[in-house]
Amino acid sequence: MIASFIMAFVVGGLICVIGQLLMDVGKLTPAHTLSILVVTGAILSGFGLYEPLIDFAGAGATIPITSFGNSLAHGALAEAEKHGWIGVLTGMFEVTSSGISAAIVFGFIGALLFRSKGNID
């Protein structure tokens, strides 16, 4: 059990280190970095490499943003097998809709409950 915690920490940490290096060394914006990590997760999922990573690292692979790309690709591929090309579009939304909806709802609740401190320069 301790080994699974260590693997999750190491793999999740490596994904975060890659993102930080893209921003610091590559001088990429956070938006570019997030996009690269999501696309990387989708590509790894498309080649069937992300699921073994999840089996190996557990939460270390399911928590970072690369897992969102995995979910998009996994849903699109699953629905494409059932419904053809239209399944590519509907599959992405079907798999990720609950997470996106939760982010919108909780963001709205947070905006109602807390007050902004204004611009930070």
Automatic annotation (TrEMBL):
Highest rank taxon of the organism: Bacteria
Q: Mind telling me which residue stretches traverse the membrane in this protein? A: 6-23, 30-50, 95-114
Q: Pfam families of this UniProt entry?
A: SpoVAC_SpoVAEB (PF03862)
- Higher taxonomy: Bacteria, Bacillati, Bacillota, Bacilli, Bacillales
Q: Which UniProt keywords apply?
A: Membrane, Transmembrane, Transmembrane helix
Among InterPro entries, the record links this protein to:
Spore_V_AE (IPR014204), SpoVA (IPR005562)
Query: Could you say which residues form the signal peptide?
Result: none
What species is this protein from?
Viridibacillus soli
Q: What is this protein called?
A: Stage V sporulation protein AE
